[in-house]
Amino acid sequence: MKEQPTKQHILISTINAIEKHGVHNLTTRLIAEEAGVNNAALHYYFGTKEELINEALVMTLQNWMEDTNEILSRPLDLRVRLTALLEYLTEGSMRYPNIIRAHLFDPIMNCASEGTFLTLYAFWLDRVSGELTSEQPGRDANLIRFEVHGALMGLLMAILLQNIPHSPLGLNIQDTHHQREVIDRLVETILDDRH
Question: Phi and psi of 125, rounded to 5°?
Fold first, then answer.
């Protein structure tokens, strides 16, 4: 690498390394190789491997929130915006499944009730369900929130289980036709005001 490494470059390289190797297989050596720097640079900018990984994962969550805000702020029909949001989440989850696994590990496996992921996920749920509640007055806000959560978790599980041999899903979420059907059904479920 010709230019002085920056904190941003190291963070992006860390995200790439997590996706290539998984967070549990990640070493500072692998991150340094991905970034084209030595271990000293990692420690200079971040102190510990854990702080570096945490900051990289926070960066992905911030991007997720920014992209969600941009999609939901478009001057389009609610159904179109919700479809675009689920398409974005599907594409990102399929492209970065190890990042998704890294975010979900502590809340699921360690029953961690605190942390950046759960905090930002709560904000994300507020943003999405708030948009739906404001455009569908009279619907139960908690039910909308639960439906949005259920749709996202179902989508993520379908994507994360996709590469397991003999997956129980019975459909290929990577197939664009199946993907379109799944997203359309999820949108219908979330927008259905008969509940």
Answer: -60, -40
Among candidate residues 108, 16, 21, the one with its CA nearest the CA of residue 56: 16
pLDDT, tens digit, for every residue of 97-142? 999 999 988 888 877 777 788 888 999 999 999 999 998 888 899 9
Please state the φ and ψ torsions of residue 151, each to the nearest 5 degrees: -65, -45
Q: Is-contact 6 24, C-beta < 8 A?
A: no
- pTM score: 0.86
The DSSP output letter for 6 is: -
Indicate the residue type of 67: D
Q: How many C-alpha atoms does 75 have within 13 Å on its Cβ side?
A: 0
**Cα-based distances in Å from 79 to 48, 103, 185, 191:** 44, 28, 11, 8
